Amino acid sequence: MSQKVTSLRLVVVVTSHSAFLEVNGQPCIIRAIEGLRVFWPTLPLTIASSNENEPSIRTLMAHRRISHELARCDSNSPTELLKALNQGASHYEAVIFHDASRPLIHPELLLRLMNSLEAGADAVRPSIAFTETLKIVRPDGVIRETLDRTSVRHISTPEVIRTSAIDIDGVVSGWFVPLKNGSRLEQIEGAPEGLRINSESERDLLESFLHWRQLNV
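Structure (tokenized):
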């Protein structure tokens, strides 16, 4: 039986300095927040980041008048992120985690994430098929093995997680925070534009894609 989730919190996680790279003149983190706000315009927002990024975050948020709370932590550590969020997150039915280095978000994807959660999933996130050829290469450059690409997926965000499924004593996690054993985990089909920006060259590629899309609308 489906059950509507009415109490949610947004958590945008700064996992890399690439979150501050500009895509067509706008930082990735701002594009990410604005993409989430299209679907969730009024949800409370937390930005999770290390102390070193705090001045940049405060400047960007103040300039655009984005109300937020700042959770200071090692945002690449599930346990540290959970520790920074634990008290605030417990007041909500579910938390939406999004990587600030993924600037493009399609509202339809967010709707499908919520539909999956409300249909009974404890944690759900997007993924897409891996189409490239994957090789395991020895240090001397010799190819040791070709991996079966059907067993590999590109994992993306947002991740939507029920707070009841979060393991506050957990350590290991393939998600933003540790999850309880037996949690119902699901993946929905993601979108290619949900790629993560890791470098300036990848940012340039995304800008080319956006320019091409504008020309072909």
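Residues 200-215 form the longest helix (16 residues). The chain has a mean pLDDT of 90.
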